[in-house]
Amino acid sequence: MSNHGACRCAEARYPSGWFDDAPTYGAMGGGAVVALQAIRVVTEAHVEQMRRIRNVDRDGYSTASDEITPEQQARWWSEHGGTVHAWLYLDTAGALVGFGLVRPDANGHWCPSVGVLPNYRGRGYGKWIISDLTRQAPERLYAQAKRANAAGCRTHAAADWDEIDGPDPAYRYYRARFDPADDAAVLADNVGRYGFHWAFSARTVEECRA
User: In the chain, what are the domains?
Assistant: First the structure.
């Protein structure tokens, strides 16, 4: 996929006034709080935007990193969309930043997958999206990252993840500390959620970048 396609994806905008009802946010601990709007992936256009972001960001994935065609993406969503919870993340100007999804693996563990567009990397957004996913998932999340992928490991080396043992020494394995089962109200609110939600990082921009 060309960078030109990535730019078109990054320039996606939502209508004027879309963010007028956003909660106020500002300084906390000396820096601005990370704020994005999460739009639930439900349409074919959403699924295609998710594919474009994933292809641009594919080198950072811990497993399959081949480029995905529109046909492959549509077939995957048709087969697995019923068990996948996915969101597109936009900034307060309506620009597309990335996506996040959670899905069950072969062992029944819910696992996250995140993609961030190039012009938003290195600014803490990937870590923030992962943090939001831990609270939107139906169950506690588990994740893995290649040891050689320093950025991926840093994403999970945060207060809301614990490193755990795993079978492959080439990877580092993590378990989210937040468990939706500990809060029935959160679980009831998140499972099957459609539309959008506002969520905020518990850390400031500066802390997310660390």
Answer: 38-209 (3.40.630.30)
